[in-house]
Design a protein that fits this description.
Number of helices: 8
Helix content: 25-40%
Number of domains: 3
Structural class: alpha+beta
CATH superfamily of the largest domain: Deoxyuridine triphosphatase (dUTPase)
CATH topology of the largest domain: Deoxyuridine 5'-Triphosphate Nucleotidohydrolase, Chain A
Largest sheet: 5 strands, antiparallel
Amino acid sequence: MDFICYLHPAWAPLIRPAEATRPWMDATPSAFAYRCLPLNIANAHGWEILSPCAFAAYWTGGRDTRDVFVRLPPGTPKDTAPVSLFGQGVVSFHIPGLFRTPPGWNLWIGGSPNRPKDGLYPLSGVIETDWSPYTFTMNWRFTRRNHWVRFERGEPMCFIFPVQRNALERLEPKFAPLESEPELQEQFQAWSRSRNAFQAEMADGKPRPPTAMWQKRYYQGVDMADRTGVPDHRAKLRLKPFVHGTPTKNAPVSLDVDADDLAEAMAEIADALRDGADTAALAARLAALGIPERVAELVVRRAKQKQEARAAVGA
């Protein structure tokens, strides 16, 4: 699937696959923070847009746009610098790119995971980039007044990754007693006993090699019976960089839709068409299941044409 950043003349965004490393993780004893695989995966779970310039920003505590100051090194082009657009202690970066995701996919934007900035907090957003012809800003809100915050040139200031629209809404959240899944319960209890024994062993203070000081089952992707959890377990992400190329046209659409939900929706749409329902609303019904909008519109249009043809023959 294509993930495209369209460039207007003179636009040159600094984008890279996100790095798994963090300075504070490097500084932990024996870099032990990297033993936490969920941290590593989250760190690299997208692409980073880098600041095109160094700058320092300051907030007086007021709500006006004039209450945020941006100080630039001499000679810095002002059109690359962040600005105060909204007030409320927010400083904004203009993103010089128009992103386009595959049909049915949004773009999550925010700050790089596990990369805190003292005195400043990244605001997050989700954008429908499969149709939107608009750029966006990356916004950071001060959490402390009368405090200078600095960005270096090339420092990540925005983090992006596509997310499938409607995927969350198709989930059916449920509570269930653990004992209803005996094998899972047994695995959990075995892990809990193993974890307690391991922590007690580590508390004795005896010297050990670094590799013996952490349990690796989750990192290795195996359960308590040493079976592989899933075939596509990831211990490292390898995202591709943005390169110049030609967008793929008319690429096949991959659908991830529950068959029962789809069958029920199609039956309802057939009935609704006979009653003269609005086709746009029916297409939206299919799109809510996760079908790309252009496909949903085509399906409804074809269904209506077939009904009209059958009606004509019957007449």
